[in-house]
Each structure stands twice: as C-alpha cells, then as structure tokens.
Amino acid sequence: QVQLVESGGRAVPSGYSLRLSCTASGRPIGDYATGWFRRAPRKEREFVASISRSAVITYGTNSMKGRFTIFRDDVQNTVYLQMSGLKPEDTAVYYCAQQESGMVWNKWGHGTQVTVSS
Predict the structure, then answer these.
(1) Which residue in 2, 42, 47, 101 is deepest, having the highest Cβ count within 10 Å?
(2) pLDDT at 21 > cutoff 90
(3) Element (DSSP H or E) covering residue 13
(4) pLDDT in tens, 87-97
(5) Cα–chain center distance at 66
(6) Which residue in 87, 32, 89, 36 sits closest to 58, CA to CA?
(7) What is the mean pLDDT of the chain?
(8) Are 112 and 9 in contact (CB under 8 A)?
C-alpha cells in the first residue's frame, strides 16, 4: 500500500533551519505532484509549496518563497522542504500530500510537528 511518511520536524529557536522529508513507499514519488501543507493551532490548513511531476515549483506566499525550498530526490524517493529563518508563526504540523487524481490532494501523510520558539 502506498504511504507518505513525513519526518524532520522538531522544536527549534527562532532563526534556525530545518529540513523536512516526505518519503513515499510503494511507488516512485515522482509519479505525482507532491505538496507541503501546514496547519497551525486554531488556523486553517495552509498551502506551503509543491513540485509537479515535471518539477515545476510553486510556493504559497512570498515569505515562504524567500525562506523555503522544495526539491525532490528520485533516488531517495523523497521530497524535501528546506526551511530557513524560521519564525514562531511557522509553528505548525507540516503534511505532505500527492495528487493521485486530477488536481485533488488526496493522498496524505500523518504530519510532522515543527515548533519555533521566540
């Protein structure tokens, strides 16, 4: 069964960097577009970044575009989210997802917690 597993989240002080990983099992991760999302306490889920099958990259906000980098390693079967200059407002559970059917993000991992202290 195909699974997406996130890792790399932890508690860090403001200004630090983290690299999150989304590893697929059961198929090549590059078969579908992969996206990163986050959900902060008491907030709606927010789109962070995505990379298409052809490696077209999209970021959710200008702030994310300036501090976050999404990239894919087909050998490791993993999509990474490199985050730098972390701020307390980046505190959230980060999820990766794939578009298995059309434009719907329908395959999700269980998330990894990122906590940024001020």
Answers:
(1) 47
(2) yes
(3) strand 11-13
(4) 999 999 999 99
(5) 15
(6) 36
(7) 96
(8) yes
Nearest to 18 by CA among 63, 85, 109, 96: 85
Beta strand 11-13 pairing with 112-117: parallel
Taking the C-alpha atoms of residue 69 and residue 81, their distance in angstroms, rounded to an integer, is 6
Residue 62 neighbours by CB under 8 Å, 6+ apart: none
If pLDDT is split at 50, 70 and 90, which confidence band does 26 have? very high
Q: Among 87, 83, 89, which Cα is nearest to 13's?
A: 87
How many other β-carbons are positioned within 10 Å of the β-carbon of residue 62? 8
